[in-house]
Amino acid sequence: MNVLILGANGQIARYAIDLFLKDTNANLTLYLRNAERLSEYQSDHVKVMDGDVLDDQKLKQAMTGIDVVYANLSGDMEGQAKSIIKAMKETNVTRLIFITTLGIYDEVPGEFGEWNNQTIGPYLEPYRIAADLIEDSGLNYTIIRPAWLTHNDEIDFEITDKSEPFKGTEVSRKSVASLVVDIAENPELHSRQNIGVNKPNTEGPKPAFY
Ligand SMILES: NC(=O)c1ccc[n+]([C@@H]2O[C@H](COP(=O)([O-])OP(=O)(O)OC[C@H]3O[C@@H](n4cnc5c(N)ncnc54)[C@H](OP(=O)(O)O)[C@@H]3O)[C@@H](O)[C@H]2O)c1
Q1: Is the separation of the CB atoms in 68 and 97 below 8 Å?
Q2: Gene3D superfamilies in the record, alphabetically (predicted)?
Q3: Which residue minimizes the CA distance to atom 38 of ligand 1?
């Protein structure tokens, strides 16, 4: 299994790298800007590659021989989604795991939904556009919409489908990373699904840590 991690120095991605190395035999390509930040990971199983996701040529180069692409990005979500879709199509790579955020479908109910909209509403549209592009791409995607993220050292999560209201308020980055690793190891898991991820029993007007 050859996994390409885009935005590999992202906070969820760092947990995922550690889980991949601890629990799987996957070969990893860590793709990031200023790659020297992860140079200590370079090994027989891990290639560290300097690159911007908006650099079409370099991204295409990184896709060679890859089975699963895991995108853990921020910033220009629309531009990056377009670059990823183009590079995957040109290299015949089909399996994509893509992190977005809760709230892009106004799917968060109640008081927390209102608070979430007030707090991050203006930032949601690019994530929604990226998700729409991916769903329309024909790729074998899993779009993940995490709740508010913590650094808690725990793996404890539940999933909601796109057709359901979002549950809970928060989830650990390690939980999202664990889900990513499970999907990469079992590519049929959550295939062509768009899922919310939260820690059970964290309902409330806002995340407990906020
Ligand atoms: N905070 C929350 O509670 C919350 C909740 C739900 C979802 N989310 C979203 O979930 C996503 C993942 O979360 P996270 O905590 O892992 O995010 P993060 O630590 O901000 O990681 C995002 C990564 O994207 C990389 N990136 C951005 N543009 C790039 C480009 N053009 N080329 C290459 N890399 C690029 C950044 O690289 P550099 O290091 O080079 O800048 C950064 O390492 C984010 O989009 C976040 O906003 C957050």
Answers
A1: yes
A2: NAD(P)-binding Rossmann-like Domain
A3: 33
Phi, psi of 152 (to 5 degrees): -60, 140
Residue 204: inside a domain, yes or no? no
Q: Per the structure, how many domains does the chain have? A: 1
The ligand 1 site (C-beta within 6 Å) comprises 7, 9-13, 32-33, 52-54, 72-75, 80, 99, 101-102, 146, 148-149
115-151 pLDDT tens trace: 999 999 999 999 999 999 999 999 999 999 999 999 9
71 CA → ligand 1 middle, Å: 9
Q: What pLDDT does residue 8 have?
A: 98
Minimum CA distance residue for ligand 1 atom 46: 74
Ligand 1 midpoint to CA 10 (Å)? 5
**Amino acid letter for position 140:** N
Find the CATH number of the domain harbouring 94. 3.40.50.720
